[in-house]
């Protein structure tokens, strides 16, 4: 009877240890280089050109290991995006704060490098601009792709490009595009 209990305890401990290796949680943050692109950027019948803004993102990460070479990485991020608008007479900044939820497939090329691809849903939380117009769409859908680098067992770096597929504005045909550079730590 003692042997059965001992074997059960050992199997349970091994199972808990294996489950801990299959799911990792962590935090990440970094810089955004964001812009809005489109064919018709017109505000109050004036045409504008856009310039990128530098902003930030921060949030939570989980990694679910399915095989040695493949895992799923859902994230919950606060990400600021937008652009600076310019014409011959004026310049203003439009900054949008999103709750972004990317769900990435991670294809591990080796123990250090992974290719990360997947969809991203973003929900508008705030809009700050210099011209007092609240015209951003409240939902955005996009795709994300990039590379991940495991520096140590728990510390990682990521580079990613996120392309918005839906309109970011109610009045202009613009879409968000963001280059993200992140550092993170898993537990």
Automatic annotation (TrEMBL):
Residues 1-20 form the signal peptide. Coiled coil: none annotated. InterPro entries: Beta-barrel_OMP_2, OMP/PagP_B-barrel. Residues 19-167 form the Outer membrane protein beta-barrel domain. Transmembrane segments: none annotated. Keywords: Signal. Pfam families: OMP_b-brl_2. This is Porin family protein. The lineage of its organism: Bacteria, Pseudomonadati, Bacteroidota, Flavobacteriia, Flavobacteriales.
